[in-house]
Amino acid sequence: MSFLTLHILTTLLFALPTLSINRLQHPLLSSPPAPLPLVLWHGLGDNFAADGVNNVLDLASTIHPGTVTYAIRLGDDASSDRSSSYFGNTASQIEAVCDAITSHPVLSKAPAIDALGFSQGGLLLRGMIQRCGDRVKENTWSRFIQGRLVPAQYYRTLNESTGEPTEEYLKYSNLLADVNNERGVKNETYKDHLSRLERFVMYRFEEEDAVIPPESTWLADVWQKPAPDGDEGTDERIVTPLKERKMYEEDWLGLRKLDEKDALEFRTIPGKHMQIGKEVLRDAFKNHFGPLKESKLRDEETVWTVQRLSELSCPLGIRVCVVAVQMGAELKDSAGSGPDSLEDIHGWWGFRPDDY
What we know:
Layout: E1 11-15, E2 38-41, H1 51-63, E3 69-71, H2 78-84, H3 90-103, E4 114-118, H4 120-132, H5 143-146, H6 167-172, H7 176-179, H8 188-195, E5 200-205, E6 221-225, E7 236-240, H9 246-249, H10 255-260, E8 264-269, H11 278-288, H12 306-313, E9 322-323, E10 331-332, H13 345-349
Parallel strand pairs: 2-3, 2-4, 5-8
Antiparallel strand pairs: 1-4, 1-5, 6-7, 9-10
Helix pairs in contact: 1-11, 3-4, 4-8
């Protein structure tokens, strides 16, 4: 991920790895498979309660009924969450999100999660996976700025003469230099966590007008090489695609390993930054989210079926959920009354899955 001004992953989609059992032999597998929970991290200037964020989550639930959705929030209300997208220490923010997910009554029990990051949220999600994937840092580089201004923490400068990262960036960057594994001592845990993803998909807008340089959305390196002294010509713009970068060749992040198992994808979206059509989202949810394509689980506690999901979703002591054998999920209480679908459970008990 290289850039002179700033770097943002436009969209990041992934599912954490899982482990396989014989479906016919497992007692919980007579219940149909449930969609994996979906976590969404919004971008700069947005908030977890925004209509756009909730519309995306509702679309995911429409395509995969019963999906438990969770919009990541870094504040008790929409205003404080929006402020946190501009100001704050990203290391602390990522740690807070890790804690929220591992303490969530459904997300913490799921065998895997699907996650979607918009713009800045995509980079932060990658940082979350690398840093805590086993549970699921007087100028731009001053410690004051790097600990408080979020966009500054994914700002990257290059040495104009060599095209290599500057010493200031490598020393003081609180987020990007770390999650890119660019420093001399590599964090093998980051590589291990990222390489175990089921899929890593990066989207680039064809008319990108916010990410500079736009090629960095696909983790390309861009160096604006100055014209030689005395030469009145223009600077030379040198673009190095991810697969030609040392980051990939030496596999600092596990991206080459992902690529070798056909789990690294590069896609484009028509339009400018964050102009995402509903059809693009439909395609993403249909092809990358929902139930596990093939169960690889062996622990009864982590089998992810409609029955298992309903057990976690039902407030104890209020109702008893009995799940029928079809994905339409006819839910009944012990008296025979209750919601007609898994989605209806929200209104039945007066909560949404992301209200936990």
